[in-house]
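hi support,

uploading two proteins for the ticket. first:
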Amino acid sequence: MATNLELKIKINDFRKVLKTLSKINVEYKGELRQKDIYFTAESGLLKLRRQNGKHELIYYNRNEKGKKRWSNFEVISLEGKNIEKTFLNFLPKEAVVEKVRKLFIYKGTRIHLDSVKGLGKFLELETAVTKGKKDAESRFNEVIKLLEIDTEKQIKTSYRFLVKK
């Protein structure tokens, strides 16, 4: 399984973040239209994601109570017709989250500017573990510092739970 270090905060406006990103060597990967259907799972979270017309099944497990949000995950690309309908035939649906995501990459950290239907605007960071957790933490902390993120305001839960409230 792959591993990420993650952070999510609610923000009012993307302008300050976009201004900072324009000053550093960040790669803009584009706008992603995502629909996540969360299913009941014995452990962790399981979702079917439709993103710009393609589908993937994502399983992840994360300790939401820890100081740091390390996430272990697996992504499976899917092809075929009626993928959503097929999964809904045999897996119980818990929640649906729809969002528009602007995706940036900086030194292996995915920076998401999410506009989530019914919830508002969020900033998410996901730093991939490629050379060990210590390296990932260092790169993660660099982005936090660059974007002047108040980590005390982080939301330690999935959009799934926020939508269900």
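and the second one:
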Amino acid sequence: MKTLKLLISAVLMTTSLSLFALDLDSAKAQGVVGEKTSGYLGIPNRQEVDAQVIDLIKSVNNKRKAKYTEIAAKNNLKPSEIAKMAHKKAVAKTKAGNFYQKEDGSWLKK
């Protein structure tokens, strides 16, 4: 009986932790992540964020870097040029209430 309770507790803890996993859309909606002019994600207004947000940013930025590098190689461009183009697209797609960085480095809520 005790083993069964421990097993049920472990399953419930695992399930509830995955329910709280932060995704990109949620992070943007909460205002803890925004689109930087560099084409990567950043933390708007230098606010304090938890490790889960940092991990999300690193994961997405690593994927973006790989994609920018791939596209740049195919088009004989620098990855930074692709990243800047991606920023413009990302700003256009940014939902109302989400943050993006302006050219002067300041953050704006759309």
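thanks. also noticed: Confidence is low (pLDDT under 50) at residues 1-20.
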